Structure formats: structure tokens, C-alpha cells
Amino acid sequence: MMAARPRNKQQINLPEHLYYDARWGTYRIKLVSGKFKSLGSDRDAAVSIAREYNLIARPRIGIKVDDLLSGNNGSMLGESAFSEHIPALLKRIIEDERPSADLTKTMENDAQRCQVFFANIPSSQITLQHVNDYITQYHSTSSANVQNRKVSWLKKLFSYAADESIMPSNPASNKKMRRVKSKQRQRLKMEWFMTIHSVAPLWLQTAMDLSLQTTHARLEISRIRYSLKQPNSKSCGCFWYEAPQETPFGRVFGILYIHRQKVAEKEAAHVAIPIGEELKRIIDRSRDKVVSPFVVHRLPEKRSNGISKEVSHISQLTPDYISRAFSALRDDVGCCDHLEPAERPTFHEIRALAAHLFDIQGIDPQSRMAHTDAKSTRIYTQNHVQWVEVPYAEIKTKAG
Fold first, then answer.
1. Which of 31, 37, 26, 3 lies closest to 16, judged by CA?
2. Of residues 398 and 36, which shows the higher confidence score?
3. In this structure, are residues 152 and 316 in contact, taking their beta carbons and an 8 Å threshold?
4. What is the domain extent for residue 103?
5. Mean pLDDT along residues 137-149
């Protein structure tokens, strides 16, 4: 007796008597009468109809309720649940894509949810309906942006699973993204900046001032060190000259090197900013009784069992802490109470304010912000790292 010819890729994991017709791109089921019936081109719908038909018309083939309750964590025909594959898939995603620490943590949390949700669902049985149910269960009250990110996560996870033949296709590929409203967040006005700055603690004033002068965001600001022995590709910090250098614009005391992680693979990710009078004043003013290598620093009020994985010193602040403190103080002073919560500017908006202030001085802010399409910059190499040296420029404020 000849062995049955193995099914091709399109036929893998289809229920008994359901076939894929590549000529028309449709699925056909063989009825008990011997005739074939087209079930259309939607795989999920065809699989669901075929299983239901087999359950009723072919009870020996159809999967019974007793089978579901008694075997293999609800898996069918001995197939393992999708949750068992998730740890290995996550490991491969991280190795292949090398996400930032923050994104890695987010994906780990998403993977844990998936392990719970898909604990009793075999890989080949996952459909678009499961995707919808997952979003409803965990993110029904989230914004359109958040829901879209979670759909993208499922698409990524399933694409890796399909690549490893764990599932025949990506069940999230047909999921439509939600329409995202145009940005509601209002730009930060200088008077609001000054109002918040006037009542902020020294460490938050320092963070705000550094962001305004450098145009950089909370992550880079939280990593600026008082002193670097030599510039390097992974650190943000100050390299001081032995003596100030006189320039047509003013005295320069050193260079502030900033490595912007978000565009880490781009040339403009490494920015060298001259330390003039204003930056030096901010850095000098930040020094207090706390011994810390970081310009923006603060000792925790309560003892803890350890420090966050996001920081390297007990006095270093996480980017999230900086953002939350800024927003809380913004609401305390009430300068933005006339705006809806979603419209109120966050710490990140200091970048846009700084870019605007430099722009009206006639200074192109793109190179300073580590934007890769900056036009007039001078690139030089130090220790095999290319740095974009930006022009001497300062924003004069009454702060401090």
C-alpha cells in the first residue's frame, strides 16, 4: 500500500477533508456525500466551519468535548499549547532585534500576558478572533496608540512563530489598526516652563535646564555625568578643558558629549555640545551634598532592597521618574489646568520648546537634537566614534 502523499505548506494543520485550492486561492471541504464545497478564501472561517462539520457529520474525526477536557491542556491531537513556545520566541526576538532596555521590559510583560492567555490554545488553532479577544481582555480601555502597539506585538510574536513553523500563518496579519487622532499634546510655553521651574526642587530644575540648553530628552539627561576621562560611544557626560578656550561667541570650558540611544545606529546619534557659560552655570549649581557621578541626581527618600536595573548608581534617576515629577508639579502649580489632561505638555515637550528658541535665534536645532537630516554640521572622529559637533549656542533665561 502506497503511503499518502504529504500535504504541502498550505495544507498543513488543516482539519480532515479540508483542502486549499491554490488555483483559486480558496478552501474546499469534502462532504460525506463525496462532493466538494467551496468555503471561500478566509482560512480562519474555513477551518472553523470544517471542524464544526466534522464534529457533526464525522464524529470519529470531529473533536469531542471530552477530548478537550481530558487531554494535553486543551490541546488537540497532542499539539502543545502556544504558551510553551513563547519564552523561546521572546529570546529570539531580543537576540535578533536588540531592543532598548525599556522596550525589552515591555515585551517581557507582553509575553507574560500571552503565556496566560494562550495557555490552553494550540498554536495551529489561534485565529483572528483570539487576537480580538486578547486586546479586549487586556487593553479594552487603552488608547488607540496603545492598542495598536499591542497588535504590533502580536504580529511580531506570531511572525516569529510562523517562521519557525510553530503555526502555519500569522493570525494577526489581518487585524486592522485603530485610527489614531492627531497629536493633542500642547506645546510647552516658556511662561509655563518658568512657572514650573520656580517651584521645582534643584534636581528637577537641573534636568529642565539641561533639556532646554541641549534639546535632549529625559533618557539622555538622566545619563549625563559630571566628568568623562575620554568620550565614548555609550556614555553621556562632560569632558573639561584644562583651561577655558576663548571663542568669538564666548568662553568654552569643555564639551558635553551626548549619545542619543533612540537613533543609536545613526551617525548623528553622537553629539558634541560646547559647554559655555550657561551650561557651566547649570552644572556647577547642581552640585550639592550628595556625592554622585550624575549631574541630575537625588537620593531616594526610603531605603530599598536595591537599585533599578535602569540606573547604575543609587542617586541616578530613571527617565520615568523625571517625567512623572515634572507632570505632577505642572498640575500642582496649575499653569495648564485649562487644558484636558491628555493635552498638557510633558517633560518631553521641553525639546520642542528648545528647538523653537534656538530657531528664532537663527540656529539650526537639528544637529543639536541628533536628527539625522541635519544639514550644516561638522563631523569628526575621536576614539573611532564619529561625533557631530554643533555650534556654540545658549538660551538665556532668568531661571536659577
1. 31
2. 36
3. no
4. 82-163
5. 90
| pLDDT (average), residues 100-116 | 92
The residues, ordered by sequence, that sit 6+ positions from 61 with a Cβ below 8 Å of its Cβ are 15, 16, 17, 54
Are 196 and 353 a contacting pair, CB within 8 Å?
no
Distance CA 196, CA 103 (A): 30
Q: Is residue 154 part of a domain?
A: yes
Q: Residue 40 falls within a domain, yes or no?
A: yes
Task: Evaluate whether 313 touches 295 at the Cβ level (below 8 Å).
Answer: no
The residues pairing with 380 across neighbouring beta strands, listed in sequence order, are 387
Only one residue has cell 494543520, namely 13
Are 114 and 157 within one domain? yes
Q: How far apart are CA 303 and CA 301, in angstroms?
A: 7
Note the pLDDT of residue 193: 97
Distance CA(377)–CA(371), nearest Å, equals 11
Spatial separation of the C-alpha atoms in residues 215 and 357, rounded to whole Å? 10
Q: Is 100 in the same domain as 42?
A: no
Helices (H), the chain: 43-57, 65-70, 86-97, 101-117, 128-139, 144-163, 190-199, 202-214, 218-222, 277-286, 319-333, 349-360
Interacting residues of 65 by C-beta distance below 8 A, sequence separation 6+: none
pLDDT category at 5 given cuts 50, 70, 90 is very low
Q: How many domains does the chain have?
A: 3
Q: Is the pLDDT of residue 254 over 70?
A: yes
Widest CA span of the chain, in angstroms? 95
> Do 325 and 236 share a domain, yes or no?
yes
